[in-house]
Each structure stands twice: as structure tokens, then as C-alpha cells.
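step 3/5: co-fold with pyridoxal-5'-phosphate
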Amino acid sequence: MDIAEFRRRGKEMVDYVADYIETIEQRQVYPDVEPGYLRPLIPTEAPLEPETYEDVIRDIERVIMPGITHWHSPYFYAYFPAASSFPAMLADMLCGAIGCIGFSWAASPACTELETVMLDWLGKMLQLPDDFLAGTHGQGGGVIQSTASEATLVSLLAARCKAVRLVQASDPQSSEADILSKLVAYTSDQAHSSVERAGLIGGVRMKKVPTDDSYSIKGAMLKKMMEEDKAAGLIPFYLCATLGTTPSCAFDHISELGPICNAEKIWMHIDAAYAGSAFICPEFRPLLNGVEFADSFNLNPHKWLLINFDCSTMWVKKRSDIIGAFKMDPLYLTHENQESGLVTDYRHWQIPLGRRFRSLKMWFVFRMYGLKGLQAHIRKQVGLAKEFESLVRADKRFEICAEVIMGLVCFRLKGSNELNEALLKKINHARRIHLVPCQLSGRFVLRFAVCARSTESHHIEEAWRHITQLTFELLQEPAH
Ligand code: PLP
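step 4/5: write C-alpha cells
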């Protein structure tokens, strides 16, 4: 492909993408394919001779689209949203074209500098304490990780390193292996599986703190567990609190948990992967009160802030905590400005070396939506979830299973888990809408998450009509 063809094909691709998005509702949201469907549709070897662009593009509808779950369809209500917007897609194109690998300031100064400023912009939208911002006299700053899972892992590894140093400072004879074997981290029994995984990867115990009847952890329970662990000779060092849990979007009481962690020198990380975006709205910001006690905080703009995957923003109160844990300086990565104290080399803030110019997406989206446009997006989706909640509440056969605070509604048919499993199966087999379940207090619950940017009231009404129709059919079946 030469530059002239690239110009032509690029414009055609934008048209294809625009058509895809404009007509996405006409596609079945969940595919009909069976595992292994794709292999027989394409050759077993890469082609020896080049093919044409037409050959490739023809196969998109034949090979790829039949196996796509359409996350941006207004009939997609599963998991949590994957953000998407036109400015972010265009910025992603430019990011691909620039194609820099911004591991150090010198590797592409704009890549690093825009990221630092964008994290400050978003930090200010969230009203984060100044300690977390880079453009202040504080010691903090922000970084884009690929995912919330990585942000949790990075925070846990940094906390682990800090804990070992702290113990060795007071007891220089203690070996690192001995300290590591005594470290204990905590999270809620509702936390995302990536938190438990971070413990596994980091080689430390991870204990699950039981939640109250609103699925949140409170200070007293954490304190009790920590006291017991300390009495048993263990060393509590890390808490991952969640704001907006995956099963039910519950909020841990961080203003109670934070002071306990601070008093015990325990690193508090906050995972607000989904719900964190909503804190740009003043009415939701009180849920973030207590962030001032945290050592690190993370949210995924690629979930709810109109920035296409990947973009997971993480702030730390003390940059030296993570840089100190991960710093490696082989000669081929050093540059003459690195000791000036003025530059950030993001490779020290993350696990991989390479990194894309993801802050371009933030810059385009923040400028073209403005804070008001972003707030309107969040409010609209919360409003749609409330509409769905009202429809569920008005039908006496159903119950709401957790308080609806953001864009997620947890609901079920009053009755057995088997009945609800059968309902979900019927919904997903019909393939008109797509939902996933969760378990709350041992009960099988259906999760309805408002996801697509283009979801409107009439989609919510249509989804509910469909669910009630399938419920009617289910309840007619002899077994029920
Ligand atoms: N934390 C929470 C609360 C989540 O809901 C999710 C995903 O939904 C994750 C972490 C994992 O996100 P990621 O895919 O960015 O690692």
C-alpha cells in the first residue's frame, strides 16, 4: 500500500466505521458462533504472496463480524461499559501513526509531558487533593496504566517494597524472605478478582474482609482482622478498597478505612475502575471523600469516560514510592536529562517498558466534550439505570437486589436461583440483549449495566418489554 492508496483506504475505513456505528442496532448483539468457528474460515498458513486490500476488507464481514459481541450496541448490558467516542477513535489513529514508544521523556517528550498534564486535568476534575497532582509542590503524580488490574498490581508491589524497607529499618537483621512470608494484604469479599490475582502474582497473602449488608467494608471489621493478624505475628501492609464493586457497584467506607491504614502505615489503594469516572459530577464526589488518606487511586476512563480502551489512570501521593520499587537504569535507556529532576520517565511507573501515546485520547475527548459534556454523559447513563430500576420495581414478580447508585441495576425474579438462571439463559439465548449475572449473598442475580453511549430511554423500555415477555414464557413452562 503506497501513500496514495493509504489516503483512499483510510477514508473508506472511516466510512466503514461510521456505518458500523450508525447501524450497530441492526446487528445481533451476541454472536451465534461455536468455539473454533474461525479457523476453518481462513487459510492455515499466512499468504506467501501479498493479497490486496479488497481481499482483506471483504473478510471483515465474512470472518470477523459473525464472531463479534457488539459492546457498543444499545442492546449490550453486560459487565461494565467499554467507553467509546469519535474524538477518542481519531486520537487513537494519530497515536498509531506517531507510533512512538514513550518509555522515557527523551523517547518522545510530548508523549510524557501530555500524559502528566492530562492526569492533572482529570485529577482536578475529580477534585483530588493536590498531593496527587504533578504540577504542584507535592510529591505525587499520575500515570496511564493499561488496566485497573495493572494499577492494583503496581500499587501492591510498591507497597510490598515499602513494607520490607520499613521493617528492615527497625530490624536490620530480618531477611527479606522472612518479612515477605509474614506480609498480609486485605481487600473486600466483593473486590474484583484482579485484586486477589495481584496478591498471587506478588506472592503475598490476600485476606478478604467480609462486607456488611450493603456489600461494603467498614473500618471496624478491617481493624479486627488486622489486630488478630498482628497478634499472630503477621505484618499487615496493604488494603485495596473498592469504590463501585463489580457485582453490585457498592462503595467501601474509605473515610473510615483510610485513618486506620494511615495509623498502621498500611498502603491504601482505591480501585474505582468503573465508578470513579462519576466523581467528576459534584453530586457523586462525596463518595470519594477519604481519598486524602489513600496512597494510590485508580479509575478506568476506558470504562465510563468516553475514552476507548486502553486508558486506566492511576495517581500516587508519593512518586518515589513506585519509582523506588521498579527503577532499573541500563545504559541504553539512560538520557542526559534524566537526572535534572525535571523529567518523568514513565517506564519506572509500570511493568512493561513500552507504552503508547494514550494521553492523546484524553486530550481530544476532554477538549471536545468539556467537563460539562462528560458530566452529561455520566448523568444520562445513571438516569437510564434509574428508569430501568423503576420498571423493575413496578413489577411485583421482581426485586431489586442492591441500591442503584450509578449505571448498574442488580435484579432478580423473586424465587429460586434455578429460576433466575433459567431466565438469564433464555435472555442470552434469544440474543436480543446481552446480560451477565453475579452472586449476592448466595443469590443468583442478573446485572443490567447501561453501557453503550447511544443507549436511550426507548432501548431501556424495549429491553424491559423483552425481559418480561421471556419471563411470561418461562413461568408458563411446566417446570416453573
Ligand atoms: N476493578 C473493578 C472494580 C472492575 O469492575 C474491573 C472490571 O470490570 C476491574 C477492576 C478490572 O479492570 P481491568 O480490565 O481494567 O483490569
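step 5/5: annotate
The CA atoms of residues 56 and 63 lie 10 Å apart.
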